[in-house]
């Protein structure tokens, strides 16, 4: 099974915090995680940028402002890479620092109390909504 509950939080004008829960089932001891990300919708995993993490979170910096990032995560062990999570995406908006819009088709996001949630229909995706964080002290 892939890592679960992938969460994205815009932490600055060009930075993003990514966190997740471990897979429900593993085929051995997890040695680490791979975080795949891109700004290009439909890009295959093999063409995405990859960062490794020894634990269940990572902070990406020096990202493009005003860009949507598409993120997925996999665990790996001595036998190789495990399944990859579903894509989750976030819009990093420079004019409203911290007000990135997190997209999650299955509404599996755990939004903590620091979020002001607003919903907006996305024209081509009637079952997809935007979640936004109201403020950010890092800007």
CATH topology title = Immunoglobulin-like
Mean pLDDT score, rounded? 78
**Succession of helices and strands:** EEEEEEEEEEEE
- CATH uppermost class: Mainly Beta
Strand content: over 45%
Radius of gyration: 15 Å
> N-to-C terminal Cα separation, in Å?
37 Å
Please describe the structure with a list of short key phrases separated by commas or semicolons.
12 strands; elongated; 139 residues; mainly beta; 7-stranded antiparallel sheet
Structural account:
The protein is 0% helix and 47% strand. With 139 residues, it is an all-beta fold. The chain has a single domain, classed as Sandwich (Immunoglobulin-like). The strands form three sheets. Strands 3, 4, 6, 7, 8, 9 and 12 form a seven-stranded antiparallel beta sheet that branches. The radius of gyration is 15 Å and the shape is elongated.
Which secondary structure elements does this structure contain, and how are they paired or packed?
Layout (H helix, E strand, L loop, with lengths): L3 E9 L2 E7 L10 E7 L10 E5 L3 E4 L6 E11 L2 E5 L3 E5 L8 E3 L17 E2 L2 E5 L1 E2 L7
Antiparallel strand pairs: 1-2, 2-5, 3-4, 3-6, 6-7, 6-8, 8-9, 9-12, 10-11
């Amino acid at each position: 099974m892939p890592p679960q509950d992938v969460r994205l939080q815009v932490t600055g004008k060009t930075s993003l915090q990514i966190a997740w829960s471990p897979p429900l089932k593993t085929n051995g001891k997890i040695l680490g995680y791979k975080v795949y990300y891109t700004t290009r919708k439909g890009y295959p995993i093999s063409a995405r940028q990859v960062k490794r993490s020894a634990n269940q979170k990572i902070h990406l910096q020096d990202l493009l402002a005003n860009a949507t990032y598409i993120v997925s995560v996999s665990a790996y062990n001595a036998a190789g890479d495990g399944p990859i999570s579903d894509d989750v995406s976030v819009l990093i908006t420079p004019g409203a620092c911290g007000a990135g819009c997190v997209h999650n088709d299955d509404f599996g996001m755990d939004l903590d109390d620091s979020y002001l949630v607003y919903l907006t229909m996305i024209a081509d995706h009637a079952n997809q909504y935007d979640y936004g964080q109201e403020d950010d002290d890092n800007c």
